[in-house]
Amino acid sequence: MPVRLRKFIGTILIIVLVLVYALVANTIAVATLGSAPWWGHLLYFLLTGLLWILPAMVIIKWMAGPRQQ
Questions:
Q1: How far is residue 69's CA from residue 57's CA, in Å, rounded to a whole number?
Q2: What sections of the protein cross the membrane (predicted)?
Q3: What span, in angstroms and rounded, lies between the C-alpha atoms of 12 and 5?
Q4: Residue 66 DSSP class
C-alpha cells in the first residue's frame, strides 16, 4: 500500500476514533457521574482523556509502515 494512502486512511481513522471516543466517554460520564464528588469527575476525565492515546498510537504505528532495516 502506498505511504500516502496509508497516511490518509490513518488520518481518517484517528478523526473517527476521537469523535466516537469523545461521544462515548461523555455519554458514560453524564449517565454515571451525576452525583459523584469533584474528585470522581477529575479522575474519570483524567483517565478517559489519556486513554484514547493507546489506540491512536497503534494507528500511527500502522501509518508509519513496516520498520526498515
A1: 21
A2: 12-36, 42-64
A3: 11
A4: S
